[in-house]
């Protein structure tokens, strides 16, 4: 069992990240992304690999538990 709570807003944000964010994040969402990184749900790709944010396997599992499917490019 997980020892952290994932809100509907977090799920929405994970879906946005999985779909490839194209717009800058507002400060409240940026703060939550930092929290999701700390939970191991999101990782930042090195600049040599294109940079940007990516979902981890753990995040994919969380989305699957919630019945959310996304199509990563």
Task: Describe what you observe in this structure.
The chain is mainly α and 73 residues long. It is 44% helix and 8% strand. It is built from three helices and two strands. It has helices at residues 8-18, 27-38, 57-65, and strands at residues 42-44, 53-55. Strands 1-2 form a two-stranded antiparallel ribbon. The longest helix is centred in the middle third of the chain and has 12 residues, at 27-38. It is globular, with a radius of gyration of 12 Å. The termini are far apart.
Short description:
This protein has 73 residues and is mainly alpha-helical.
Q: What's the arrangement of strands in the largest beta sheet?
A: 1-2
Order of helix and strand elements from N to C terminus:
HHEEH
**Sheet bearing the most strands, described?**
2 strands, antiparallel
Estimate the global geometry from the Cα principal axes: globular
Strand content: 5-15%
Catalogue the unreliable spans: none
- What does the radius of gyration come to? 12 Å
Number of strands: 2
Which quaternary structure do these chains form? single chain
Q: What portion of residues is helical? A: 40-55%
User: Ends: how far apart?
Assistant: 30 Å
Structural class: mainly alpha
Query: What is the number of helical segments per DSSP (H or I, 4+ residues)?
Result: 3
Average pLDDT works out at: 84
